[in-house]
Amino acid sequence: MNDIATLTTFLGWCTFLNMGLLLYSTLVTTVFREPVKRLHSKLQGIDKDKLDALYFNFLGNYKLAIFIFNLVPYCALKIMA
């Protein structure tokens, strides 16, 4: 990544792909709630009642990480260019 334009493009695509993954994860955990909870409960040995809070926590932290590590640097580079 030799220049600002390349880095900006890279961060733009990272933001796009991560937001797509976040949207997909949110849809899967809401549309297929019971099968996903049953699978994760069996695999990890976590009570099904606690999984809703864990999903919410995960999605919130992932969204925050996308904003901090992808979107904010992308916007800063766009402003600089």
Key attributes of the depicted protein:
81 residues, mainly alpha, 3 helices
Topology:
Elements: H1 4-31, H2 33-44, H3 48-80
Helix pairs in contact: 1-3
Count the domains. Answer: 1
The largest β sheet comes out as:
none
Radius of gyration: 17 Å
- Global morphology: elongated
Question: Helix content range of the residues, please?
Answer: over 70%
Instruction: Provide the low-confidence segments as ranges.
Output: none
Strand content: under 5%
The termini sit apart by 15 Å
What's the total helix number? 3
Overall pLDDT metric: 96
Please give a structural write-up:
- By secondary structure, the protein is an all-alpha fold.
- It has one domain.
- It contains three helices and no strands.
- The model has no long low-confidence stretch (mean pLDDT 96).
